[in-house]
Specification:
- The chain is an alpha/beta fold.
- It has helices spanning about 15-25, 65-75, 90-95, 95-115, 155-175, 195-205, 225-240, 255-270, 300-305, 315-325, 330-335, 340-345, 350; strands at about 5-10, 30-35, 55-60, 80, 125-130, 180-185, 185-190, 210-215, 220, 225, 245-250, 255, 280-285.
- It has 13 helices and 13 strands.
- A 7-stranded parallel beta sheet has the order 3-2-1-4-5-6-11, with helices on both faces.
- Strand 5, helix 5 (about 155-175) and strand 6 (about 180-185) form a beta-alpha-beta unit.
- Helix 1 crosses helix 7 and helix 8 packs across helix 10 (about 315-325).
- The chain starts with a strand and ends with a helix.
- The structure holds nicotinamide-adenine-dinucleotide and thymidine-5'-diphospho-beta-D-xylose.
- Thymidine-5'-diphospho-beta-D-xylose binds near residues 89, 186 and 221.
Length: about 350
């Protein structure tokens, strides 16, 4: 059956993996990648599939409701996988308005267009991609986030994502829109913008730049390989129950400082540097404001109901990720020039001034 699917944010990190999976796996679907190409959007992430006949790119801003409505009508969109967002916590602390606009108003604009266009069509689905950060922070060695955990966002980023989740549920409750939501833990893998911990630190190790650890490096994150997230998204889009929420996580908790030492070990080895050579680059900097102590996801529901399991182990995928960044220095150099450099010089003035 032909389906016209809109994937928002498909030029970003996770979105590009989802677009690639859908374009390759479902040749009978028309995949429309809608992306505004902000600093985080990069069409180079999709070079290998851009010529495929079922792939189409649309440059548009999700906040622009009239344009979104026209696109829905013109392309006869019947499914949405919504990933477009401002996604970096540190940026949200500096500029919360952009996060409210994109993440809240942008999501509302897509929901409203779906509601208007899908009134007489039952074969539709609005899938909203969210984050574990909406649940707040966990204490060390205690519970995990389940789908029943109360929302308690702390950063402007997580508050904006929580708000967008509430709008999605409101459209299900009020208009019976066919919605589904997933909340995922920290992703890592190829094509991640190097402002996030893993690609930033790989890049800095390569260039022998400081590795700024926030606070004492004691915070814990649950890391999931991006392709495992993309496969979960495929399953949930096709088989998830309407109105439901699914947590996605790696069951793979790492204290930041332990993960950083592991990254140093792998990267130094691949660069043929002496063991522990780059540990001298670690510097402890002022903690992130409102820094959540620990995230950890219970994904039992997704495993039990839809049969999802992460593939391969963390060590294999982390090594594969480091190798990818080392082999794709052009990609890394392109995204770490211009606006990015200015941003980092302002963020870490004292660190990067030399
Ligand atoms: P990203 O920042 O790499 O990509 C976001 C994409 O959205 C970019 O291509 C950007 O150009 C696009 N975009 C931004 N504003 C837009 C607008 N107004 N209109 C159209 N396009 C716009 O993000 P990511 O890390 O790939 O995250 C994707 C989604 O997954 C987000 O919704 C994020 O909240 C969620 N998520 C991310 C993680 C993670 O670890 N990265 C974990 C859980 C959930
Ligand atoms: O320079 C750094 N130093 C540092 O110690 C950076 C960039 C991060 N950190 C710490 C902060 C976090 O405890 O590393 C951890 C991971 O940081 P990020 O990569 O910024 O991710 P996080 O804040 O945990 O949020 C991520 O996971 C959930 C994504 O950015 C979100 O989009 C996603 O929703």
């Amino acid at each position: 059956m032909q389906r016209n699917i809109l994937i928002t944010g498909g030029a970003g990190f996770i979105g590009s993996h989802v677009v690639r999976l859908f374009v390759n796996k479902y040749p009978n679907y028309q995949i429309y990648n809608l992306d505004e190409l902000t600093y985080a959007g990069n069409l180079a992430n999709l070079k290998d599939i851009e010529q495929k006949p079922n792939y189409h790119f649309i440059k548009a801003d999700i906040i622009d409701f009239e344009s979104i409505l026209n696109i829905f009508r013109e392309k006869q969109i019947c499914g949405v996988i919504h990933l477009a967002a401002e996604s970096h916590v540190d940026r949200s602390i500096k500029d919360p308005f952009t996060f409210a606009k994109t993440n809240v108003l942008g999501t509302l604009s897509l929901l409203q267009a779906s509601k208007i266009c899908w009134e007489n069509n039952k074969d539709t689905r609005f899938y909203h991609i969210s984050t574990d950060e909406v649940y707040g922070a966990l204490e060390m060695n205690t519970d995990l986030f389940t789908e029943e955990t109360k929302y308690s966002p702390h950063s402007p980023y997580s508050a904006s994502k929580a708000s967008s989740d509430h709008f999605v549920r409101a459209f299900y409750d009020t208009y019976e829109l066919n919605t589904v939501i997933s909340n995922c833990s920290n992703n890592y893998g190829p094509y991640q913008f190097p402002e996030k911990l893993i690609p930033l630190f790989i890049n800095n190790i390569v260039n022998e730049k400081p590795l700024p650890v926030y606070g004492k490096g004691e915070n814990v994150r649950d890391w999931l390989f991006v392709e495992d997230h993309a496969r979960a998204i495929d399953l949930i889009f096709h088989k998830g129950q309407t109105g439901e929420t699914y947590n996605i996580g790696g069951s793979n908790e790492w204290k930041n400082i332990d993960l950083i030492k592991e990254l140093i070990k792998i990267t130094d080895e691949l660069l043929h540097r002496p063991k522990g050579y780059s540990e001298k680059l670690i510097i402890y900097v002022t903690d992130r404001a409102g820094h959540d102590l620990r995230y950890a996801i219970d994904s039992t529901k997704l495993q039990r109901e839809l049969g999802w399991q992460p593939q391969q182990d963390f060590q294999t995928n982390l090594r594969l990720t480091v190798e990818w960044y080392l082999q794709n220095s052009d990609w890394l150099n392109n995204v770490t020039s211009g606006e990015y450099l200015n941003y980092y010089k302002t963020m870490y003035n004292e660190i990067y001034e030399n």
